User: What shape does this take?
Amino acid sequence: MKTELRCLEHQIKNFKGISETEMIESMNFCSPEGERVQTSNISNKPASIALNYHARMKEINREWYEHLEKRYLMLSEDVRFFEAALTALSGYLPDFMTDMVVHGCTWDYLCEHYHISRTMVAKNRRKAIVELDELYRKHDDEMVSYMLS
Assistant: This one.
């Protein structure tokens, strides 16, 4: 999720949208399927493109940029909640799970660092998952409650 977040941040910072050439090409080469019914007085396709391409290009670019921003905010909130949920675990599970999940430590490292067996690593992992499930359930319930109020 953090990798996707960094990618979205890069896309937003370097957003250029579609170019005028790409827009003109998409309008020039797309054709409606089905019966052709003339709905305007403009029968000349190049004239229609000239009249509409710039406004349509701005609209597409605005919509795409808003989509990137919305996705970034949602993903950012998901990451923040996950990190907060990790710190809310019981006992030494916050540090343990941060090492396991965030830092990507191996089970062998966790055994050595926390002076536990591989079986205990598995038990700690299962316990953390149960606690995280409960935190996420409460979070989801709060969101539903808020949306329905």
